[in-house]
## 1
Amino acid sequence: MLATGAYLPGDPITNEHLERLAGGLPDDILAGLQVLTRHWIADPTTGEQLETNSEMAGKAARQALELADVDPAEVDLLVLSTASPDYHLPPTVTFVQDALGLRSCAAVELRSGCAGAVEGLDIARLYLERGQYRTAVVIGSEAISPLIVPIFRGQDPKRVRMREKLGIYSFGDGAGAMVLRAEDTDGPGDAGVLGSAIACVGGGRPPGMQVIGGGTFKPIHEQLAAKRLVDLRVDVVESGRFTPFVLTEGMRETVAAAGVAADAIDVCLIPEGNAEYMTDELREAGLLTSEWIALEPRIFENLSLVGATGSAAVPLALDHGWKTGRLKAGELVMLLAIETSKWKYGGWVFRWTAAPVAAQASPSAVAGVR
């Protein structure tokens, strides 16, 4: 991995701002959500949309390429994951291709949430390892606020239901990008990707999260009769109950695929929340495994700053870790993303190879917010 890039739209939106618009949440629930600020492409007051998902993705990709000192013309593979595309067709990734000025390149899009960026990394890795392409940009981008703002815009904050407030306070928009390059090396055998694990473990189980509307699950005329054409639905109770089991399986399988002991990993990036909160959940479920005990003090995330950002969560956290100096060249990094949509996980273990960002970028480029 040569570099990362990030883009967060607009100014940070605080919990105090949301309280004025949608009503407040009890302190204990806010502490559980862990989110202090988030960024939205939709103006929380007017609902005006400032930009599109593909525009955010393009800006993150361009910044990552600049920090990697790679000309966009060198990119021969683009992989993008999102659950909130600009359109059903064309794929959002093709608009990113336009933004980078590429007449032709391989362009792959995944319809996924948190696990999607790791799945995208694995797809790019397979193409690069077999020599079909040399330079890839993997992007996770999400625009959730257009589904959230209509819930409370123009409403009396006292009439916004508690279960709706949980989504309002939880989610953020943003995009993150990662530049990968296939290089011939005579270095150690673990200089690249040591192993990966992806799976959906929700076979026969109802979804924990759904974006409903605009698809073909029922006739459009019936969908138009709904209160909202597109609706974000989260099973909060089941998410809290079953997520620890998905996390445990994902962690176990990822470590096994990499062929390393958990205590050999230097940094574990799990963008779902703080380690103390998750430790409590695992303990209550009887799942406090040896892998978790070894990795818990090494967990890094930035949920409090950006909110739950779906496909963008992993690259945004990775970018934040690199630019703040938390990730250092030569360290063994584990990515583990859990997705409640149909209970998926994606795990990756690799050696961090990007040079310190301060040596490559100006302060304005490192900020990556506007």
## 2
Amino acid sequence: MKKKLKRIFLTGLAVVIPVGLTLYILSFIIGIMDNLLQVIPSQYHPDNLFQVHVPGLGAIVTVILIFICGLVTTSYFGNRLVRFGEHLVGKIPFVRSIYQAIKRIADSLFMDKARSFKKVVMVEYPRRGIYSIGFITGTPNGEIQKRIGQKGPCIGVFMPLALTPTTGFFIIVPQDEVIELCMTVEEAFTLIISAGIVTPTDHPFTGNATSSPDRQGLLPLQDGDTETVI
């Protein structure tokens, strides 16, 4: 009876914890977006107009504003206005560096301009004989390639930390030392966040495990390919 009760309790935890954490994170994000409505004057605030608090209204307003910004930016005059604003921001020394770095990352992630975080790879890191899972972020520029002095091309890989995958290390690895994996990005993040407790489904693999990444599906580097993501 004791073992049966324990099994039932653990089964309940396995169901409640994911649902509870998901609801908590969603409520936290919605709460932050609702706080964005505080910039509206009190007489025009939705809570005062409707005489009732509408949960999630901030999230709806934020999504609508983002859509409107995207719609305006795609027009000719909106694009010119954005470029003019970026030109003004470029005149501010410290702010310019932060803005340009964030813009490059956002363009790579949302505008599909690079291969960033689209392929899961395995690298011998932090030393030989120990393998870590990472994500391809981009191709270092020509200066870095020349300074490294490798015979073959190198690629940038982000190595996330277990439990906190939003932090990690950015390393530059010779392309022939990178092993591409068949698992998806979502499966890799789940494996890293759980510290290996949750393993992804086995994927069919064809080919030699020691073959170069080019043969495993990595996009070959082209001459003059100097795009940098991070």
## 3
Amino acid sequence: MNNNITLKDFIKQAASVIPSRRQTEWFDIEFYAFVHFSPNTYTDLEWGMGNEDPAIFNPTDLDCDSWVDAVKSAGMRGIIITAKHHDGFCLWQTETTMHSVKSSPWKNGRGDVVRELADACRRGGIKFGFYLSPWDRNSKLYGTAEYNDFYRAQLTELLTGYGDVFEVWFDGACGEGPNGRRQEYDFDSYIDLIRKYQPNACIFNDHGPDIRWCGNEGGHARHAEWSVVPRELCYRRTEAQTSAGPLKGDLSYLYNSLDEIGSLHTILYTEGLVFAGSEIDMSIRPGWFYHAAEEPHSLDRLFKTYITSVGGNANFLLNIPPMPNGLFDPRDISRLKELGDAIRESFGNPVTGSAKIEKAETPGSDTQCIYNINFNEPHDIRYVSLSEDITLGQRVSGFLIQRKNWDGWDTVYEGTTVGHKKICPVNLKAIRECRVYITSARDTVNLKHIELY
């Protein structure tokens, strides 16, 4: 037992864990694209071997402006490109290796996919980011201390040569190198470079520091998504904002795929809490790279994933793989437009302005409250969207949405966390009065928005 802090004081500390400015700005982006593009696009593989002939990479019709147009039609606000996947092939004019576009016939070896995309993103008014795989199946240095110098040189080129970067994405994939050894990645030095050259960029990694993986690649969200999580889960250069929990113990079992990583019964055992939002990633098709035989997922599946990710206190990263000619498949472009239309139709015209919303405290507790919502005339409500002011901390842990009936209140939705945004499908018909009842929170509730659609 940790006798230095009471349960009440620790919960209050947990309620005050806040995001950095870069994390707050990242949450506001909400929905953006991944683009997996490499020799795998031409070999029909998901993971390349690293021995592919650069001559196969030849996107003769590459048009990054069309990529930007397609993702914007879906309502996305950024693109992250696989500047280098595990096969080690670099999509930019790197000085570190010839296993790159420099050895490709595309534009006589003078092409630069990263440059063309970064410029197109700026023209289109959306964010630009990149993925740089630490695992490199081509480099002969992989598995040696010198490889970290090699990787840092590649990272520096991308951080300094392509303008503002909103997110740097690297996973922890670590396969065996050509010399039979595994690489010890110097993540601390990678993070230092990003902070030096792109201080506003958020860093995605399984273990932080800014953004963590949701734990699956199928777009599946948790029932309760906390951005405030134990440091044991997100320990990469992240300082705890609280003291240890009153039951400080063993959380070595924690991983992103578990469901209850931020719940009270877990965080009581932590060495300290940090803020690290969740990113939900999936591909528009079954594979991450382009395979002609695959079809895009249904509009229903993609829209539901949007609701449970952007509407579940997470950001949504949706992959769209280019075809070998460098263009998006027309089937994917059509599905993106359908998705954007569905999002705009559902959330483009809030009826909140027609409502009177008043907050009332409940007797006996300052961590419960009710937001009464009244209309002058009957309204149909399909969704209720809630947002906390996360700059003051994520606090709500339970809430109800209720409609008034002739003898009291009916519960139409029961939720747990809110955070940056919680979208609640309610499908209320001809209502004049409803309410949001915050049944539990870690401290005083600070809802920033209640939007009705």
## 4
Amino acid sequence: MALAKISGENRRTKSLLFLICCALAGISPHLMEPSKNLFPSITLAVLLGGYGLRVVLRDRRGNYQLQKEHLTDDETLPKVDVLVAARDEENVIERLVSRLLSIEYPEEKLSLWIIDDGSKDRTPDLLQKLCTKFSRINVLSRPSMSGGGKSGALNSVLDKTDGEWLFILDADAQLQRNVLLRAISLALHGGWSGLQLRKSVVNCELNQIAAYQAMEMAMDAVIQRGRLASGGVSELRGNGQLINRKVLESCGGFNEQTITDDLDLSFRFLLTRSPIVIMWDPPIQEEAVTSFSALFRQRKRWAEGGLQRFFDYWPLLISKRLSNLKKIDLACFFLLQYVLPVVSFIDFIVSVVLFEMPLYWPLSIVAFSISGLAYWKGCSQNSEGPKLPAPTFLNILGATIYLAHWFIVIPFIVLKMSLFRKTLIWEKTDHIGS
């Protein structure tokens, strides 16, 4: 099965089968004898808890860290294209251009591209003025409803660029001037095909929702680095990703049949044996959403895109293309990230109907405990970006409770994917210019 031919067929059927399997897993323990009905949950808690603990402990400060002697000389630096897909970004587009122009990299080896993807606000006018003022900025405009979402926008500029590497940013990205130089040096020295900068939050002091997202991003980096150090899989996160053009072309470019280009591309890199590294410092800085409604809109897209890739690529994920360690890592990640929320939701509904206690609480407690440990580890580390929230007991407790939103979002998305046909729409996160 060629990667370029995967187009996301039969996702509705696959989602329905997934829902049925989760329903059976959630209901079955309630049909067992009381002396045995906790056995499935306890068994999974031991196995997945051991996996999660190993992952968190394997993340160490020295992992994948750039040494000063590894910095690449200007003469040997590869050509890099910086690409930004922007839609309705009038609040941040001027700041973005300022950040792009400040990147420390030889000008003759750096091209800066902004793709205006059918903006309906003042973004096109602002870009026209900025392009006139700064000749280094290249702008490509796509008509409204061109299709393909962010992937389509990025694909539209590939034939106009020739850089050996692509540096993908979101419109709200804020970055240190030397971040590209350090990232490309780490990628070249380590032989990585892709590099993801740790994501950090610039507005984490606005409210607790933003603060918990800052902690969540630190936790995610810890888990990603730990998975990689354990022989598992690490993933791209969209904003702040550095990717090798030849590898991207061998994968068939950006997939326009997905709503999360970064997660889909992560699997394409994985299946072509093209490793991705997570760089802790310096991070890429971005805005967190500051309301529950915006959070749920964002997380619904992430959840749906995350599930889509498993449904699309599962025949290849269980093939000989992947090592056993990577298969185990993916299986454990899938169980914790997607299966557990759906099974726990069904378990809760059944327990309410039968006036019984939920039976998957041991697994849920272990999963939340591992998350709390990852929070503590991530927020305890130094950060060259915005200061991370202190890993106090109350902060970790609040952030752990905050994670429960996934136990609502993922079951909702699975049900939606099972019952309704999906129209691919790139629902962007609004940026206010924090």
